[in-house]
Design goal:
mainly beta, about 45% strand
């Protein structure tokens, strides 16, 4: 099964809707995250991303997960996009 992660960055230097990034992970037969779980990813300094929504699509063999927004007032759009790319995320 594929895990599709969606993460939004918001901040003063960004548009009001923020920047949305996507990352796909093949999790095989591993367990799926639940709402309220924390996922580990190095895109944030804390390394922890909080699951706020989940939708399983068995027909497409995928689980779409929405993560809690990240507030970033220190970086501009270019810097955030470059950082996301380094950590395997793509702009959505």
């Amino acid at each position: 099964m594929k895990l599709l992660l969606f993460l939004t960055f918001q901040g003063k230097a960004l548009s009001p809707t923020g920047l949305v990034f996507q990352k796909t992970i093949d999790i095989g037969s591993n367990s799926l995250p639940c709402i309220g779980d924390d996922l580990t990813d190095t895109i944030t300094k804390s390394g922890s991303l909080h699951v706020v929504a989940k939708n399983i699509n068995y027909d497409d063999d995928e689980c779409v997960v929405t993560l809690e927004s990240v507030e970033d007032d220190k970086h501009n759009e270019y810097q955030i996009c470059e950082m996301a790319k380094l950590h395997g995320w793509s702009k959505s």
